[in-house]
């Protein structure tokens, strides 16, 4: 079943929409959740919550890309889970998330938190244009680190790179991002 048909099932309020979404994108959403949370049980709960959140969001929304829509919901729910756990105790599962946010904080100036700045539509458009200008390796590594929140070791394994190459790519890409944001008026 294609994405348009699945979205139409949501619009028709057919419970088959959830089954089709789970069949087509369940493993994908689980990989996103697990990449952020590093916990099997939490990841399964987040994926389950993804279907409920999607059910409540469609309608009124009609996503152009169901895969991207589900990925965003899964990622946001995963980050919410980290924040919830972090509120209960400092450190633990949130350490990887915090490290990634700190790395990006070097590039983005904001009187608010980095999280709210990144969520801004204007800044989001600037970041998308920046990413489009990157070569494929740099873009893939950057997204795996800062969207999927994978650690350097995981990225190196997935890409077939050494950890030092991944670190260098990330360092150079952050420097390029800093320069790009300066030109766009978002520099530190």
Helix content: over 70%
CATH topology heading of the largest domain? Arc Repressor Mutant, subunit A
Q: What's the alpha carbon Rg, rounded to whole Å?
A: 18 Å
Point out poorly predicted stretches. none
Helix-strand pattern, N to C?
HHHHHHHHHH
- Count helical runs: 10
Instruction: Give the tally of β-strands.
Output: 0
Summarize the main sheet: none
CATH homologous group name of the largest domain: Winged helix-like DNA-binding domain superfamily/Winged helix DNA-binding domain
Task: Please state the structural category.
Answer: mainly alpha
Beginning-to-end CA distance, first to last residue: 47 Å
Q: What would CATH call the architecture of the largest domain?
A: Orthogonal Bundle
Beta-strand percentage range: under 5%
Number of structurally distinct domains: 2
| Cα shape | globular
CATH domain class name of the largest domain: Mainly Alpha
If you average the pLDDT, what whole number results? 84
Output the keywords.
188 residues, Arc Repressor Mutant, subunit A, 2 domains, Rna Polymerase Sigma Factor, Chain: A, mainly alpha
Structural notes for this entry:
This protein has 188 residues and is an all-alpha fold. The protein has 2 domains: 3-89, RNA polymerase sigma factor, region 2, helix turn helix motif (Rna Polymerase Sigma Factor, Chain: A, Orthogonal Bundle); 94-183, Winged helix-like DNA-binding domain superfamily/Winged helix DNA-binding domain (Arc Repressor Mutant, subunit A, Orthogonal Bundle), CATH 1.10.10. The protein is 75% helix and 0% strand. α3 (40-57) packs across α4 (66-88) and α9 crosses α10 (163-183). The longest helix has 23 residues, at 66-88. The mean pLDDT is 84.
């Amino acid at each position: 079943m294609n994405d348009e048909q699945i979205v139409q099932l949501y619009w028709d309020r057919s419970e088959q929409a959830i089954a089709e979404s789970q069949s087509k994108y369940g493993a994908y959403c689980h990989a996103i959740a697990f990449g952020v949370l590093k916990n099997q049980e939490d990841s399964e709960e987040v994926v389950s919550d993804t279907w409920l959140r999607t059910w409540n969001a469609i309608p009124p929304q009609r996503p152009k890309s169901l895969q991207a829509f589900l990925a965003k919901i899964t990622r946001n729910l995963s980050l919410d889970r980290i924040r919830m756990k972090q509120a209960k105790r400092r450190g633990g599962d949130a350490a990887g998330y915090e490290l990634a946010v700190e790395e990006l904080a070097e590039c983005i100036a904001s009187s608010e938190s980095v999280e709210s700045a990144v969520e801004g539509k204007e800044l989001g458009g600037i970041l998308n244009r920046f990413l489009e200008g990157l070569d494929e390796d740099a873009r893939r590594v950057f997204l795996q680190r800062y969207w999927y929140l994978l650690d350097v070791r995981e990225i190196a394994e997935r890409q077939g790179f050494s950890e030092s190459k991944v670190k260098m790519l990330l360092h150079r890409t952050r420097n390029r991002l800093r320069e790009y944001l300066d030109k766009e008026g978002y520099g530190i």
